[in-house]
Amino acid sequence: MPSEMLRAAVRNNALWCNAVCQAQGVPGEFSATLWLHRQGTPPFYPDVITLTGADSAREQEEAIAVLIRWRKGGWGVKDSYAALNLTPFGFEILFEADWIGIEAVGIHAPKEQPLTWKRITTAVDLELWERAWGAGDPPLFAEPLLRDADIAFLAAFESEALCGGGILNRQSNVVGHSNVFAIKKTERVIRAGLLQKAAEIFPGMPVVGYEHGDDLSDALELGFTSLGPLRVWVRS
Questions:
Q1: In the chain, domain spans
Q2: Residues 21-37, mean pLDDT to the nearest whole number
Q3: Which residue of 54, 75, 139, 198 has the smallest Cβ count within 10 Å?
Q4: Res. 219 pLDDT band, cuts 50 70 90
Q5: How far apart are CA 110 and CA 156, in angstroms?
Q6: Phi, psi of 12 (to 5 degrees)
Q7: CB 38 within 8 Å of CB 30
Q8: Max CA-CA distance within the chain?
Q9: DSSP states of 56-107 as a string?
Q10: Residues paired with residue 100 on neighbouring β-strands, in sequence order
């Protein structure tokens, strides 16, 4: 049975994706088992996120089959519990990953010399942050996200040079961390600092997210626990 933290991580991620779309004026829809966006989402974001596991997999697959007939073009599905088989509908697996979580008591100050962290509060700084993160044009993140007290865009500096960053979002009684990037630093160093900022800005709350490959290994070494698998499916 999925843990409470896993369910919270899934819900947090769906709410974050919806917030990104809503900031652009086109929010998605929630049902009991899915978050979905009929019009098409910004780059890097799925059109469908499953909110429940294997018990409702058939229902979710049937709903996705209807959706892809409704709108032609590319679709992305975040299979949050790795429970779907979307191959018969023309999807292929883009990547597999693990949900991760860490309780607030497990977050410790980085061993290395702390970086200087800044919370992004203006549209100009957001544009610079997004450029450093590596998004192309048009901009992905809209200014209304900066006015939400539950969302924090953070940038790390070393000797006044931007060297990394990430995003925190507080939803569903956890803090999601995402979009971690590093410039002339390892992502592990940046993630450790981002964790510390999460403990400062949203004290006492667990931190969740998902990763794969070396980023997953780094997160586990920092004290995160693997909560369960996920898959991302795409259809062109």
A1: 4-101, 104-223
A2: 96
A3: 54
A4: very high
A5: 13
A6: -55, -45
A7: no
A8: 54
A9: GHHHHHHHHHHHHHHS-S-EEEEETTS----GGGT-EEEEEEEEEEE-GGG-
A10: 209, 226
